[in-house]
Amino acid sequence: MTKDVIDAIRERRSVRRFQSRPVPDATVGRLLECAVLAPSAGNVQAWHFYVVKDDERRQALAAAAHHQLFLAHAPVVIVVCANLPRIANRYGDRGTSLYVLQDTAAAVQNILLAATAFGLATCWIGSFDEEAVAKVVGAERGILRPVAVIPVGYPAEEPAQRPRRPLDEVVTVLA
What's this model's pTM, rounded to 2 decimal places? Predict the structure, then answer.
């Protein structure tokens, strides 16, 4: 059963311990469907997703992510890449330096929230060696740039909500 989007936003956590239980292919497919429903500049959809289930590749991704070993224990890892030529063709440098990062970030957030709705756990990993990750998944240099690595699985822990800054500290209303 899926959750309301507001519930998923409130309940989403970065999880670093996963059960060994596999994630059904159909569920992974639903996560990817949600990813491609994200908004993108000019609807260019300049993204590409690698789904990594192979143990050896997950181990290599963990090493490439500065030895964040928990990554290898998730049964599925999704590597989100920016398709640089696709965005550059429409928006040039601004597209490759900003828009594609915004677009892939929106796709990542959709994956995280959809996973939460399905009772799955994730962690948005941005700390990694881009070239090493690209090599693991076979992303062509200069074409597909890895921007996020997302382990996906059933949670083996329930982290507490981390503190958030109060709205009056981060919001300015201009009336």
Answer: 0.94
144: left (phi over 0), alpha (psi -120 to 50) or beta: beta
Mean pLDDT score, 120-124: 97
Lookup: tokens for 79: 């590597």
> Burial level of 66, CB count in 10 A (0-12/13-18/19+)?
exposed
* β-bridge mates for residue 144, sequence order: 83
| Whether the predicted pLDDT of 3 surpasses 70 | no
| Closest by Cα among 22, 7, 12, 18 to 157 | 18
| CATH code at 5-160 | 3.40.109.10
Looking at the DSSP bridge assignments, the partners of residue 121 are 153
Question: Would you state the pLDDT for residue 136?
Answer: 98
pLDDT single digits (tens) 135-164: 999 999 999 999 999 999 999 999 888 999
Q: How far apart are CA 119 and CA 168, in angstroms?
A: 32
